[in-house]
Amino acid sequence: MADIIEWPVGLLSPRACRPTLVPFTRSGGPSLGGVERVTRTDAGHWEITLDGVPVRGTAAARTLDAIAAHCGGRTGYVVVPAWSFDTAPYASGRFEPPVIVDHDDGTGFSDGTGYLQSAIAVTLAATVAIGDTRLTLHSVKAAEDLVGVRFSHNHALYRTGRLIDLDGEDWTVAIEPPLRAAIPTGSDLEFDRPTCLCRLATDTALARGTIWKGNDELSVSFVEATEYWNDLAIGADV
């Protein structure tokens, strides 16, 4: 079983999060008439940069070094935030934070706390398989438009494309990249705070200096761990 950690967004919260889907294209070069034919030869992968990660105090510095030790360069897996607050389909049309709610009977957990309930509620209307490039979303609590938004499921990150069909609250949309893993009907999809399973973009991506006074700030880049999903699909030990 792969050893996977999650980026501590509470302690190392970036100023900006930049998820980019990178397609792989190839060109045969321009023709004599200057026309260049470009073809897409790969499904693409995500690259995510966390800009302005503050390293304030001993706890933050130690946590960053512990993450670097876990990663061992580009080999370790990290669940990275792919925040999409600017495009997330909030029902109100503007940012809505998660809310704390109790059980149906009005009680909370044994320590008195409640559930953290997402502001956006979207489920999968029909089971999809590995490699599918479209799916049907059932809007429980979301904006009227589910085109051009990012979501994740089990830390596999996707974005929706064009609308294919609309039937009441069910949106059939194109997605990219193709499904990394099957998703069963009725599954909750993460639109509020989507995430992506990644590894560091370079072996030294978490390198930092020693700051005696003031604070340090890093820009950390990651690439999607596509090999994890490939291994999972072929039944290899992950």
Q: Rough shape?
A: globular
Biggest β-sheet: strands ordered side by side in the sheet: 1-4-13-14-3-2
Structural class of the helices, strands and pairings? mainly beta
Number of continuous helical runs: 2
How helix-rich are the residues, as a percent range?
under 10%
Q: What string gives the helices and strands in order?
A: EEEHEEEEEEEEEEEH
How much strand content do the residues show?
A: 35-45%
Spans of at least 5 consecutive residues whose pLDDT stays below 50 are: none
Structure description:
This protein has 238 residues and is mainly β. The protein has 2 helices and 14 strands. It has helices at residues 57-71, 226-233, and strands spanning 4-6, 16-30, 36-55, 77-81, 99-101, 115-117, 121-124, 134-141, 150-153, 156-167, 170-176, 188-189, 195-200, 216-224. The chain has a 6-stranded mixed sheet with strand order 1-4-13-14-3-2, covered by helices on one side. The protein has a 6-stranded antiparallel sheet with strand order 9-10-11-8-7-12, with no helix packed on it. It has a two-stranded antiparallel sheet with strand order 5-6. A hairpin with a 5-residue loop joins β2 and β3. It is globular and about 60 Å long. The mean pLDDT is 87.
